[in-house]
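@channel sequence for tomorrow's demo:
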Amino acid sequence: MKSNLLPIAKEGWSYLAASLFFLVVFTIFDFSFLQFLAFLVTLFFIFIFRNPERESMLYQENSVVSPVDGVVRSIEELEDENSYAYKVEVEGSYLNVALLRAPFTSSLKQKELRRGARISPLAALSKDINENVKLVFMDTKSSNKIKVVHRLKQSIKGIDVDIIEGQNLMQGSRYGVVVNGITELYLPHNFRLNIGIGNELRASESLVGYFTNDTKKSSPTKK
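structure tokens (generated this afternoon):
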């Protein structure tokens, strides 16, 4: 994973270059209306691919932060899942920063990217056919792990995840881009939630919760 410290995420450079090219062409030929449209598109790309610096939060050991910007839409207790106790769904939009950040200091144990459609999540088949990526992050010392699933909604861009299996990540480090998507966090039994439905999360800054030493199923914190 290469450092990505410019104000515009590298995944958006080609989009921005194309819009600037058309802006220059329309300006040269004095196509005023098209020039204005190209200018708006350029501003749109600058906005959705913005890459702001985020403050490194000093949470205690075993903390997990949000990998995405968005709003918590649901928290579900999983009764039939052996590895995970909770599923948290976070919905992002074009108004949110699109960059993804590592939820805790860990190693990427699994990456499964499936290209697909980009239809509305209201459609019955969206969960089956929309483009998605499944990632499993694990702390090799404690064996604590979480699964993160990013799934696109109606997006102008496919999923970009530029990390590989076995790669070590620091909490909060960038690992890709999802523009207008839904993220599911699968959390283990020894996890104490620190969020509630309706909470607005910011990647790398919002605390999702903590791993605990108790292997029994913990109750989610009420917010």
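heads up for whoever presents: The two ends are 35 Å apart (CA to CA).
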